[in-house]
Design brief:
It is built from 16 helices and five strands. The chain is of the alpha/beta class and 375 residues long. Strands 3-2-1-4-5 form a five-stranded parallel beta sheet, with helices on one face. Helix 4 crosses helix 10, helix 5 crosses helix 6 and helix 9 runs antiparallel to helix 10.
């Protein structure tokens, strides 16, 4: 998969291509990883969804329109996994703090444990000798993308076969994935480890990898009988924070990398007269990811300037000119950490309906998808 062009127009083209092509076979083929040089079996829309150049709602509704309720069911369910992870991290923000603390502690171990250091370095360089795993490590660094099934296999081998700290693997992904975000990445790694669904790890199996890579990979020596990781006390749940409403009259709009669709924000009677962009990439993001973030932000600012008929520029001191600052809700992560004090954070109706149902397991939200998508 070549690096995607990070504009909304390119995202809409990719959505249209998926709906007109492989989308009809998504449910049957989605688990197959055809390899980096073959046509993808997934939508490859995630880099656009993670920055909301495309929103989950418009993508899910487009699939329903194209394939009908039965034909779109599996794809829509996968779109909702991203929404679920966002909502779950909002109600369990301690998970993100624990990940970062665990990552730092694991890095300290690398300095003290030469054997662990060697295993880690071979893993990220794709030099373990494990068929499949090494190819995925290389693809991740070079393309910034992996098929979802490959991500699961990779994470499982990292944790249970190589016995590396899961936090270091999550950091490796977050550094290179063009669609990486704190919620989906952190909670997916915890799910594989058996921490998110306690005691139920995902174990990569040789026959499964052989089948769903069409025989391209056949790794020997996997630990297929491992116990899940454990933590004494799971991250505690907190109430979902209340969103603000946009005030009537002139406002300044602050965009960030978690929501770059200013045309559809719930602004009510607010009148946007100034727009700025807060470019807060993850602190360890690769140059490729940073370039994608910058391109996506530039596209959003250009669209905002055209849509609202006002100046739009990177954020600088005094940019708001004393106006109330309104910003789309920034979920737990770099954008939320970087927001200036005093912003009025508004939340989309999609998130308002879905996130309160995301505080436990996915099945609760899965069962409510028709309600969330109701007009």
């Amino acid at each position: 998969m070549p690096h995607p062009v990070m504009t909304r127009a390119a995202g809409l083209d990719a959505l249209a291509s998926f709906l007109a092509g492989s989308g009809a076979d998504y449910a049957a083929t989605r688990n197959t990883d055809p390899g980096r040089d073959d046509a993808p079996t997934t939508s490859c829309l995630s880099p656009y969804l993670s920055r909301r150049l495309l929103t989950e709602e418009e993508v899910a509704r487009a699939a329903l329109s194209a394939f009908g309720e039965r034909g779109a069911d599996k794809f829509v369910s996968e779109v909702f996994w991203r929404t679920y992870f966002k909502g779950h991290l909002e109600t369990h923000p301690e998970t993100w703090a624990r990940y970062r603390a665990g990552r730092d502690a694991a890095r300290a171990r690398l300095a003290d444990e030469p054997g662990l250091h060697r295993t880690h370095d071979r893993a990220v360089a794709g030099e373990t000798g494990l068929d499949g795993f090494d190819a995925w490590a290389t693809q991740l660094v070079e393309q910034g993308f992996l098929h979802n099934h490959a991500r699961m296999w990779f994470a499982s081998i990292w944790i249970f076969t190589l016995r590396l700290p899961w936090e270091l693997g999550a950091a490796f992904f977050l550094r290179h994935l063009l669609d990486g975000d704190p919620a989906s990445n952190t909670l997916s790694w915890r799910w594989v480890a058996g921490l998110h669904t306690r005691g139920k790890p995902y174990l990569a199996r040789r026959d499964n990898i052989r089948e769903f890579t069409r025989g391209r990979h056949d790794p020997a020596g996997l630990n297929e009988d491992a116990a899940s990781l454990a933590e004494e006390i799971p991250p505690r749940e907190v109430p979902l924070a209340h969103a603000d409403t946009a005030p009537d009259g002139p406002v300044a709009l602050l965009l960030h990398l978690d929501d770059l669709a200013p045309e559809t924000l719930p602004l009510g009677n607010a009148r946007v007269t100034r727009v700025a962009g807060l470019l807060a990439s993850d602190e360890e993001a690769s140059d490729t990811v940073r370039a994608a973030d910058a391109a996506a932000m530039a596209d959003a600012l250009a669209r905002a300037a055209a849509h609202f008929g006002c100046p739009a520029e990177p954020m600088r001191d005094g940019w708001a000119g004393g106006l109330p600052v309104v910003t789309p809700w920034a979920p737990v992560g770099p954008s939320a950490d970087a927001l200036p004090a005093g912003c009025r954070r508004i939340r989309r109706a999609w998130d308002e309906r879905a996130w309160p149902l995301s505080n436990r397991g996915y099945s609760r939200l899965r069962g409510a998808i028709p309600k969330v998508m109701a007009p």
